[in-house]
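Lecture notes, unit on protein representations.

Consider one protein chain, 242 amino acids long.
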Amino acid sequence: MKENSHIFYCPQAINAVEGQIVNLDEEESAHCCKVLRLNVNDQISLIDGVGGMYSAILVMCTKNSCSAKILQLENDIYIRPYYNHIAISPTKNIDRFEWFIEKAVEFGVDMITPILCSHSERKILKIERLEKIILSAVKQSGNVILPKINQLTPVLDVIKNANEDLKFIAHCEPGEKQFFANVCLPKSKSITLIGPEGDFSDQEINDAINKYGFKPISLGNTRLRTETAGVSISAFLACINN
């Protein structure tokens, strides 16, 4: 990839070969042509969302439809050796939740599940808007894997169905907890539950720990906001894996 090459999301590029023509969707085409004012013969980079990045050259460029010819698959791309699933209660202030999503994607997250808890104050989310924030953050940060965001899900459903190797819950109630940096392992598959501003209920904490094997964790000696805790998880995992 050229140092300042513009990056576009193109799922059609999955397993593309040299010389293949692929098409950008309408939104990416508009960004390419109308916003960035690129044109035929300009070189760009494409990500397929599942780990591939390709050098390509524009062969058609209109405000509604752009096509590019694959030049080569980039081989020096960093692929995260771990899986990070954050299940987090959306904040009452949606701007804070959107900030969390942007920063978590920049550090590296594979799945975000907004959870509905007993003390949750926000019970409606516009997932399409959050998907756009994720895509923008992926392209800005140079990540090649597009994280998935799930619909708002009852926390008990997430707790029951979690199948990650490592399962953590960050809560503010007193009790024995382990510092997250000491228990998160490199190259692991993990899920971390982060509660709302009013924290998880006693029942939610008890079910997660005693029924389904979640480990209670601490993120330090200060009480973090929900969105800060979510970003901290992603930062810890990025550091321990780098």
